[in-house]
Design a protein that fits this description.
Structural class of chain A: alpha/beta
Number of helices of chain B: 14
Low-confidence stretches of chain A: none
Distance between the termini of chain A: 65 Å
Helix content of chain A: 25-40%
Structural class of chain B: alpha/beta
Number of strands of chain B: 13
Distance between the termini of chain B: 58 Å
Mean pLDDT of chain B: 96
Order of helices and strands of chain A: HHHHHHEHEHEHEHEEEEEHHEHEEHH
Strand content of chain B: 5-15%
Radius of gyration of chain B: 25 Å
Strand content of chain A: 5-15%
Oligomer: heterodimer
Shape of chain A: globular
Order of helices and strands of chain B: HHHHHEHEHEHEHEEEEEHHEEHEHEH
């Protein structure tokens, strides 16, 4: 006897539309979820608080006299609301997340456990330093390994994210130049740079000029040398660069920049490709931020928090921002404003309240100690191996504009050349969503038409890579053949393509009560 | 190595596909003199989970956790009870290990949460709109000053003496480079704020007045007169809130006329964490939205007409505008914003009001007890859950002596304003719902002992 496991009967036909609509709008495990403002109310709460003892209000006569408009949910409702929302997200925990330049690698759960130890998670930043020696030791130890891994002189730990770290580095450069009475006006940035680079330089008061790239995707050294002069404060270089290539002439670039009296800023977003194998300090770099949320695997959390310590050369170290942790014998000191005058008189000041992203330091240090010297070297090697495997497994179906320049580093770059008329990188990206993947970085770097930047990271197995390669191959072939199904992808995600133009033209940024319906005459 | 799935056989097979003999072939573009021959010096080789955990446990034990001691620290970071479900939910892998929602079709969870968060923040602050978060309160404060400069096309900001000194210090750092002028003075150990100075200083050159509410000494003051004077002169009022729980008890800055309201959101959902990561809140009037920094989430529809959410107005942002962006900010504090939003949803309006009432009542009771310690005076006339005591001697060594007695007894103004003799006897004391009457008694008797 056979079993009809699907329950299908001949009279049902196979018309998809007939089964498409459900009463709830849900599709089995794909669950719709309303906004808290639509399901909660101002009297419901998910906490039990003791009644406040009667007290004379000492609020300066400013007692709140209007409702706030914040709905509450009971705990079961809240747990369900956020659990349902979570299921509408793609995440590393679900699959390969090849977002180039973002280093979406596995986030070890040991690091989560450590960050939550009471001695780190439940200590106040202004507690007397005698009561937080272990926390200061963590900062000091992480700082030591960051300096060691990069071959630099010092590290400023407090920047809160990569872009904040860039700002730190550029401010250190400006402070160093001003200290020698040499105000300069311009920062040079390669065309392929991350958008944060020019934005940072402008935020710090500099004019920004582009340096062209060579045909093989690297900084044009001759053009750079020709532009250097007494008005140039520094050069911001990403190495490995955003085309996924190592800047072979990095040392020559640094020497030329230094000869012109300027400084070299290195965007460390791509440090994962070289950690444990190359020390930026050996290449003449003066400042480089390290995204702890990339190379050192602190979780991206749906867009932060990040952490962006900045390693500094001997020339820039005196200008590093406050605060610092210093070790005197067995005791750790926190150098804040009051003691800074003694031996940090040239510091350019404070960049944030308190001391930076402690919760990220614990995780990053746990990551470093777990991998160790041999593991970190293996991280870079496997990250580069995985990217080259993808590059060479797909360069017959996708155009690899710098494929002939040699091996890539930790990310593989493709362009939209050769797709059927009217088919774009966006179509490939959206079709990958249907295949169960987060798409690669699209349309960046700007120097490549319809760029697709694929960064697999080292935490993918060969089987996972092979399946991804198969999926991207299939989707690319469909785009070359002009399969119209691609234009309407994704078909199977919680939402179809969203109207971004509408969102920008008539911004709705907060929920408002719907207008009461007007009664018909 | 437990985080690296490739086997030696995989590596060989993959090198074969690539056409490379060894891994070194893939690093051929790195100049030989920059290649390290072997593993980095000094750093030990890989370690087990057990070994790493043991290392950190030993370090964690050297710190005095707030939960284990009578604890009274505030000044921009507060110890509140966080419901257990908050930390559970933010550890859902789909939240924890997601990226910025650049592909909205598969990021509706994060995007809807951000839309709810923006609405919660806007309403709490009494503003029209809020963004999807900033790094923390201090950086949000500078971004607000910077934004006020863009809106008014002026470069002089007047900072209240009650603004957190770290926030002032950060603004000073930035202003050195941007050329903004900052009018700022240290506070006085007095019940009276410097609002008269602010009112007198506002003129046609002023871009904004920045006032913390409640302020660094815990004082609460009506902002309406400052708002009115600022507006008469074409300037903006920026209000800074470092303790959002207060807004469950007192009027929002938006109601009193603030144009931009920013602050620290740590109190709701995010632990102390020795100072970070925290979450910066940023809200303003609708007419300024295109000058706002940071990410914004907006509502839209998909091709089938279903409601959905996307990141929007990104033409303000660095990845599109490059050197013309409103800010260089890229990452925000997504996971901390989520924690804030979940905790706020669990509280709801009623819970937040009850929590605020409880904080205020406990603080008032603690203030009454502490002023009975001989020589101790209460500086404030008004406060929410934090007030300033004037001790008969320098407070900084007193705090250290209290810590020796296992009491974490507030923040000395000497630490925040080193070298200011007028402030060195000041001690800022925060009292939240986690403080018990026994804690207050322990604090009072230890203080009496130290002052004797």
């Amino acid at each position: 006897m056979t079993i009809n496991a699907s329950g299908w009967r001949p009279e049902m036909g196979d018309d998809e539309a007939a089964v498409a609509a459900t009463y709830t709008g849900n599709r089995a495990l794909m669950l719709e979820e309303a906004l808290i403002f639509e399901i909660g109310d101002s009297e419901t709460t998910g906490v039990d608080l003791a009644a406040a003892p009667a007290a004379v209000a000492r609020l300066g006569g400013l007692e709140r006299n209007r409702p706030i408009g914040i709905p509450g949910l009971s705990e079961p409702e809240a747990v369900r609301h956020y659990t349902r929302l979570s299921r509408q997200n793609y995440a590393i925990d679900l699959g390969l997340f090849p977002l180039g330049s973002c280093t979406m690698k596995h986030n070890p759960r040991l690091n989560e456990k450590i960050a939550r130890m009471k001695g780190f998670a439940d200590v106040h930043p202004l507690a007397p330093t005698q009561s937080v020696q272990g926390a200061l030791a963590v900062i000091h130890e992480l700082a030591h390994w960051l300096v060691t891994l990069t071959g630099m002189k010092a590290v400023a730990m407090s920047p809160k994210a990569g872009a904040h770290g860039e700002l730190c580095g550029i401010l250190a450069i400006r402070a160093a130049l001003e200290a020698r009475g040499d105000a300069r006006s311009t920062i040079l940035v390669p065309e392929s740079a991350h958008g944060t680079n020019p934005a940072t330089a402008a935020f710090a008061g500099y004019m920004v000029e582009n340096i062209p790239a060579t045909a093989e995707g690297r900084v044009n050294l001759a053009a750079l040398k020709a532009r250097l002069g007494s008005d140039v404060a520094g050069v911001m270089i990403t190495n490995p660069n955003t085309c996924g290539l190592f800047e072979r002439e990095m040392k020559a670039i640094s020497d030329a920049v230094h000869a012109a009296g300027a400084f070299v800023y290195c965007d460390g977003a791509n440090f994962n490709a070289i950690v444990g194998r190359v020390r930026p300090g050996d290449l003449g770099v003066d400042a480089m931020h390290i995204n702890l949320h990339k190379t050192f695997s602190t979780p991206h959390g749906g867009g932060g928090p990040g952490s962006g310590p900045v390693v500094l050369s001997e020339a820039l170290a005196p200008y590093a921002p406050l605060p610092f942790v210093e070790r005197h014998g067995n005791e750790f000191h926190l150098v804040e404003e009051e003691t800074a005058g003694e031996h940090h008189a040239q510091s350019f000041g404070r960049m944030t309240a308190f001391h930076g992203q402690m919760g990220m330091y614990t995780r990053a240090l746990a990551y470093i100690l777990s991998h160790g010297a041999d593991g970190l070297r293996q991280v870079a090697e496997d990250a580069v191996l995985n990217a080259n495997y993808i590059l060479r497994s797909l360069d017959d179906v996708l155009d690899a504009p710098f494929g002939a320049s040699g091996p890539c580093m930790h990310e593989a770059l493709f362009s939209d050349a050769g797709l059927a008329e009217g088919f774009t990188t966006l179509d490939i990206a959206k079709a990958l969503i249907d295949e169960g993947y987060h798409p690669m970085t699209m349309y960046f770097p700007l120097v490549v038409h319809g760029a697709m930047l694929v960064e697999p990271t080292e935490t993918e197995s060969k089987a996972a890579l092979d399946q991804f390669i198969g999926a991207l191959r299939s989707v690319s072939l469909r785009a070359k053949q002009g399969d119209p199904g691609l234009k309407t992808a994704p078909h199977f995600a919680p939402r179809r393509r969203l109207d971004e133009t509408l969102a920008a033209r008539k911004p709705v940024l907060v929920w408002k009560e719907p207008e009461p319906a007007v009664a018909a005459e | 190595m437990r985080y690296l799935p490739l086997t030696q056989a995989d590596r060989q097979a993959m090198l074969g596909v690539i056409g490379a003999r060894s891994i070194d072939d893939l690093f051929v573009d790195v100049p030989a003199e920059a290649r390290l021959a072997g593993p980095i010096a000094d750093l030990p080789n890989h370690a087990s989970e057990m070994a790493v955990e043991r290392h950190f446990s030993a370090l964690a034990r050297q710190n005095m956790a707030a939960a284990h001691h009578p604890f009274f620290l505030g000044c921009g970071a507060y110890k509140h009870h966080i419901p257990a479900s908050v930390d559970h939910l933010i550890q859902r892998g789909e939240f924890l290990t997601a990226y910025t929602p650049y592909q909205p079709e598969i990021a509706q969870g994060t995007l809807q949460m951000l839309f709810e968060f923006q609405t919660q923040v806007a309403r709490l602050y009494g503003c029209d709109v809020a963004n999807a978060s900033m790094y923390d309160g201090s950086t949000a404060c500078w971004e607000a000053i910077s934004m006020a400069g863009r809106v008014t096309k002026r470069k002089k900001a007047i900072l209240s003496s009650g603004l957190h000194p770290h926030y002032v210090s950060l603004a000073r750092t930035m202003a050195k480079f941007t050329g903004d002028a900052l009018d700022t003075v240290a506070p006085e150990l007095s019940a009276k704020t410097d609002s008269d100075r602010l009112l007198a200083a506002i003129d046609a050159e002023t871009s904004c007045v920045v006032v913390q509410y409640p302020d660094i000494l815990g004082r609460i003051e009506d902002l309406s007169a400052i708002a009115a004077k600022a507006h008469e002169n074409g300037a903006l009022l920026v209000a800074v809130v470092t303790e959002p729980v207060a807004l469950g008890a007192i009027r929002s800055p938006g109601e009193m006329g603030a144009d931009i309201v920013v602050g620290e959101g740590q109190s709701i959902g995010v632990g102390l964490q020795f100072g970070g990561p925290y979450v910066g809140l940023f809200a303003c009037k609708e007419k300024f939205v295109r000058q706002m920094p940071g990410r914004l989430c907006g509502e839209t529809v998909d091709t089938e007409g279903k409601r959905g959410f996307v990141l929007t107005l990104s033409t303000r942002e660095q990845h599109i505008r490059r050197e013309k962006a409103t800010s260089n900010i890229c990452t925000n504090a997504g996971l901390c914003a989520l924690a804030f939003s979940i905790h706020m949803t669990l509280l709801g309006e009623r819970g937040l009001r009850d929590l605020a009432a409880l904080n205020h009542a406990k603080a008032a009771a603690a203030a009454e007890r502490l002023v009975r310690v001989p020589g101790v005076e209460l500086v404030n006339e008004s406060f929410f859950n934090e007030f300033t005591l004037k001790l008969p001697k320098e407070a900084r060594p007193v705090v250290r002596a209290l810590a020796d007695r296992k009491v974490l007894g507030g923040v000395s103004l000497g630490r925040l304003y080193p070298g200011d003799p007028g402030l060195e006897n000041g001690l800022v004391v925060a009292v939240t719902e986690v403080v018990t009457p026994e804690d207050v008694e322990a604090f009072a008797s230890a203080l009496e002992e130290v002052l004797a």
